[in-house]
Each structure stands twice: as structure tokens, then as C-alpha cells.
Amino acid sequence: MAARADDGKPSGVLQGFVLDRNGQRAEGVTVALKGTIRQVSTNQKGFYQFTNLVRGQYVLVVSGVGLQTNEQTVNVTDEQITSLTITIQESIQELQEVKVIAARGLREREVLPEVGHNAIFAGKKTEVINLGALDANLITNNSRQVFSKTPGVMVWESEGSGMQVGVAVRGLSPNRSWEFDTRQNGVQISSDPFGYPEAYYNPPMQAVERIELVRGGASLQYGPQFGGLLNYVLKGPATDKPIAIESQQSVGSYGLFSTYNSLGGTSGRWQYFGYVDYRRADGWRENSRYNIFNGFVSISYLVTNRLKIGAEISRASSVNQQPGGLTDGQFAQNARQSSRARNWFNVPWTVPSVTVDYTINERTQLNLKVHGLFSERNQIGFVSAITNPDVPTAGGQLANRTIDRDTYQNWGSELRLISQYNALGRRHVLSAGVKYFNGYTDRRQQGKGDVGSDFNLRLVDAAFPRALNLRTTNVAAFAENLFRLTDRWTLTPGIRVELLDNSVSGRYSFAANETENQISQQRSRSFALLGVGTEYKLAHFATFYGNYSQAYRPVLFGDLTPAALTDFVIDPNLRDARGYTIDAGLRGAYRKFLTYDLGVYYLNYANRIGTLTRLNEANRPYQFRTNLGRSVSKGVEAYVEIDPIVALAGHSKVGYVSLFTSLGFTDARYLDLPTATVTNGQLVEGNLQRKFVENAPQFIGRFGLNYTYRTFTLTALLNRVGKAYSDANNTENATTNAQTGPIPAYQVMDVLTSIQGKRYLFKAGLNNLTNERYFTRRAGGYPGPGILPADARNFYVTVGIRL
Hints:
Elements: E1 12-19, E2 30-33, E3 39-41, E4 47-53, E5 56-63, E6 70-76, E7 81-83, E8 86-87, H1 96-101, E9 109-110, E10 126-130, H2 143-146, E11 154-156, E12 166-168, E13 180-184, E14 187-188, E15 208-214, H3 219-222, E16 228-234, E17 244-252, E18 256-267, E19 270-281, E20 290-302, E21 307-321, H4 328-333, E22 344-361, E23 364-381, E24 402-423, E25 426-448, E26 466-484, E27 489-510, E28 516-539, E29 542-553, H5 557-560, E30 568-570, E31 577-590, E32 594-615, E33 621-642, H6 644-648, E34 656-672, E35 674-679, E36 682-687, E37 699-709, E38 712-721, E39 724-725, E40 742-743, E41 746-756, E42 760-767, E43 775-779, E44 786-789, E45 794-802
Parallel strand pairs: 1-7, 1-8, 13-16, 30-33
Antiparallel strand pairs: 1-4, 2-3, 2-5, 5-6, 9-10, 10-15, 11-12, 13-14, 15-16, 17-18, 17-45, 18-19, 19-20, 20-21, 21-22, 22-23, 23-24, 24-25, 25-26, 26-27, 27-28, 28-29, 29-31, 31-32, 32-33, 33-34, 34-37, 35-36, 37-38, 38-41, 39-40, 41-42, 42-45, 43-44
């Protein structure tokens, strides 16, 4: 049972150690008081502690990935320290032994449990990346290294500062991760998830404890995006001491300097944590300087053993010089060069939230989040095609730069319930919730800036030619229920009901006679998404999972906004893109030395939005934005990792080795995508059937080796990515302005190492060991236009201390 009362002055202490079956102290194991909100993780010594407890009887629950859940009843008395040491056992999947004796590489990747803190994950394809066990360049958020064991993740490597992470899966666009529902600690951090879902901010990876990735099956519980959920979970306060300090100082190539410092702890009923992170560099390319600041503060109070209230706020600010794009000829000649010295980008980003956790009883918990976003996106520069040089005119004057500014003011709330109940002799789980979101974007574009080269947002003319008010309102409710059909088999059906309204109003351009071209567009709709997942434990080393989930891509603000043309029509019946994802796979662990996850998928993306050229009644061409057709992505995602030393010898005095491969095979094609152009006054129609979806390579392979000896690790990575196209026409010969054309296949090697003790750490890495010249993106506009080269060979060194 739970504690008998919450009244009175709590003063009892419950503490102890958690040991594995070999008598070694187990770090990172979850210890909770059943029927309360209170839980902690064991520290590096395997120690746990609960203070300020009311006298009474408690049930201590010890759990973790790969562990059998252990429950112990204990009596706590006033003003006394009650000690209890617990020995844990492996679960049927036998993962914990791997964490104790094998290479640290096998701890870097896990899967989410069947039932989480406030969501159901059974039957879904999930991955957890534990950054504390990962050798990777966390300073600049090197995504190809961070996602090295996550099959099929496409990474845009076009922005060396790491301020904006661009990743995608299954043939979707990596554009600032906008095909994901991108979150931090469960709170959405993109500009507007339903109108402009680009994530211009992501937390520094040095502050992230783990990354949770749930593919298509996340759409019912988290939102509509086809990519699924991408959630950055930040580090939290130390639970065993009032003050814990961590400091990491880093230097690297091209003037890189970074400092990360955090402070946190627990004192009585209060917990707090905060960090400041600052990094700057000159950048590998010319004109690519950056300065980035990140700050975070969280505080929580345990009102009772059942109720906890917390608040947190993130603040980021960056000023980045943008080197612009290159033509194919310039890239081949010297990929470091830049002909744009006057382009700058600035992102101030603030994300506050309040969280309430309440345990109704030992089977039912509530979680409420109220969150906001108050941010900006600002740019100034000469953004003409790269074939137009940014040089003085015949009169000796540089062209005026263009200023674009967005201001975001969003707020929302999400209430989640998770409850276990008994029926027909088995325990089932219900997860349900409601969400409200209100977003407002003030968009001002095409402003006339100065002719200088520094960063400023001063207008030469008083008015922005484009000044729009963009609004979104979303109300949603969802429910999923995990039914345990047998001890091995679960079935999880679910539904999500969406009510969505977004609108655009304001001025989109000035006409030639200086009158204003106004726009007023609104879309309101409601619909339901359905899904079902299943999971079956075939054996102690193999679990089958399968999932079908519907999803949609909302009509975005850009879809409702015409270009600065008078001959532009938006289909009054424009609909959200709709579709579904099917997953099936097999995952597990075998005899403590092998982990694997082998899956296949099918993603149907229908009602895709695009623009056609049409002829009006006067036989004059105009642009018509409407729903065009659909694409289908299908493929294989495979992750396999093996420790040969454990497989052959069980134990080793000279260290352990893990070898892994992470493979993604994708066939993403348009099954129906009409085109229409006007040639010599005649409408010429076509269809891009069987063309490859842009930015979707057919092969993404990452291969690696981890060597571990006590606190030392060495990691070698090979990243191979196949050819892709930058446009739906699959243009083979690059255009003169380099905005359209192929993206050639490439491979990159990295070597990383670390030494991590209880009080200190040392990390170093050599990125792009063979100094490859490659690019992952051709930009049609910002931050190009043109080819955006990836960074060449570079290094970093980090030293840190924990107190």
C-alpha cells in the first residue's frame, strides 16, 4: 500500500543501495514510492534517498530497462533513518547484465517501455538515445553522430553551429525537423506546430539526458505529424544532495570555444536545476561566425507525496553570420569560399512551462502542462540568386539588404491521464488526454535594410511590403487503451479527435500604384485519426511489434499565402494532407551480447499540396495552389549491435568491444503528382509518377565500433548516404543557380574518445577524418540560395568536472 497519510510534519528518511545480482552497485535504476509522485534514480554509487516522509508503511518499487520490477514493503518512523538495500534481477530480456559488464556502446540505445510516465508505447517503433553513454560531438550538436544508432535518420549538415537540427525519417523533409512533433521535456518548441512547424531552436546536447524518438505511431498521442515524436529530455537535479555542479569547457577547430555549466540539487521538498551554455566560433567557411547562448532554469516543489508542481523556462539567443550558397563550379573549386559577407540570422527563443503531477492512487496519475513560446526569427542579407554577385553597382553602391522578421506568441495546455485497471483477470492500461493550443505569428517580410555589413534590423523605408497576421487554434482529445490479451500479447487501439483553425490576414504586397494587395484566408475543420498497435513476446530474446496510425499534415501558413503576384489563386477547397503509417518489426536482446531492431514500414502521404500553372478565361496563365496527389515511402530500418568478447568469453580483463550497424533503405516516390506549364500559350500537362521524393536518399548506413576499458572508450564511425534529388523533377543536371540538381552520395568517418570518472570527464574527437567534400542540401532561399557545403575535417576537446 502507499503511505498512510500526508498530514503532519514529515521527518522520516528512507535510504539505501541498489545492487545487481553480482553485488555491484547499480547506477541509474529508478526507485519509486508506490501510490505517490515520488521517485529518484540511483547515483553512481547505487545510492537512493527519500527525505521528509510521513510515518507509515510504504511500498518501494525498483524498476529499469531490462529489470524485473521489485517491490519491497518498509515501515518509516519519525525522525529516524530507515535503510534498505535491494538486489535486482534481470527481466526476461536480460539487458541489465549487458549494462554491467559489456561495452558502453550497448548502453547508448534503448527502447521506451510498454507504458511510460504518461503515455503508452507498446506496439510502436521507439528509440531512446542516452547521451551520457554516447561518444559524440555534443558541443555543436553533431546529428550524424548523435543519431548514429538510429536507423534511417536523414541529417541536413548545412549549419555548423548546431543551433538548428534538421533531421527526418522515411523520405520526409529534414527542414529544421519540421516533419516531427519536436519537444523539449514534453513541451512543443517549434514556431507553430500547425502553421509553421520549423524548429529554429533545440537545446544544447550537453544539457540533454536522452532523446526519445517515436516514429509514425506517435500521431495519436502527440500530434499529427507524419514523422512522429522527437523529444529532448533535459538533465535533472541531483536527488541525493542539495548542491551538484557540472562544468564542461571545450575548444576546437576554427576558433571554437564552448562553456557549459550547471547547478542543481534537492533540499527538503524543493528541487532545482539550471544551466548556462555559451559557444562561439569563426566557422569552417568564410563569413560563418556565430555566437550562441542557452540558459535554462527549473524548480519544483513536492506539495504532498501525491502532488508535485514545477516550473521551467528556456532562453536561447543566437547571432549567426550566413555564408550563403555556392554554385556547383564554386563548390568544386573551393567549398570554403563565400560571396555573401552581409547575411545575418538572429533567433531569440523563450519557452516557459508549468507542470503539475498528481497521483490519484497507485494505479492512476494525472499530468498537466501549461506552456508558452515567445520568440523571434530575424534575418538581414542580400538573398538574390548566387549567380548575382553581391558587389557595388556602377555607382559604387552596394544593394540594400532585405529584412524579414517573425514574432511568435504561443501558449497551450495539455492534460494527460494514465490509469491501470483490472478486467477479465488481467491488468490493462488507459491513456487519455486533451490539448489546447493558440498561436499567433506576426510576419513582416521584404523590408528594405541598409547597405552595411553588420547585423542590424534597421529599416530604410518605414513599412514592410509584406505584413501578415497568422493565427492557429487547435483543440484535440485522444485515448489509447492497452489490452493484455495474454501474458505475452498486447493490443492497443486508439483515437484522436482534432479541431483545427488557422488563418492569414493582412498585406502580402504593394501594387504598382502603391495600393495594398490584401489577403484574408481561413480554414476550419474537424476530423478523427485512428490507429492500433500490437506487441507479442515470441521468446525471451524476441518481441514482435506492429502499428497502424493515421496522420495528417496541416495546411500551413505558406500554403495560405500567395506569392507576390496578382495572378495567384488558392483553392478554396484546399485540404490538409492526410495519410497513414504502417510499422512492423522484431526487436530484442540475446544472451547479453546482442541487441537488434529489424523493421519495415509503409507511409502513405496523400493530398500533397503544390502549385500548378493554369489558364484563365482570357487564356492568361495564373498560379493555382491545390491538393495535387500522393507519395508513398516504404523501406527497411535495421539496427544490430554485438559484443563479440561477451559472446565468446563472457568476461574480459582487457576491455570490451561492440560492433554495430544502423541501416535505412527507403523507396520514396510520387505515385501521382500532376504538373502543368504554359508553352507558347498552350497548357502542357504532365505527371511525375515514379519520380523520387526530394531529399530522400535510398540508402543511409552508419557503421561503428565501440571499445571500452574501465572508464575509457574509443568510438569509430562511418556514415554513408546515397544519392538524392533536390526537386520532384529529379533534375540530373544542376541549374546555373545551383538551387536544383542532384545531391551526390557521400561518406564521412569520425573518431571519438572519452574518459569518464565519477568526478571528471575528458572527451575529444576528430570529425570528418578523411576531409571529405560533400553537401546534403541545395537551398532555394534562406540560408542559401545554392549549395550549402558540410564542414570539412575538424576537432574538439572537452574537459569537465562534477561536484
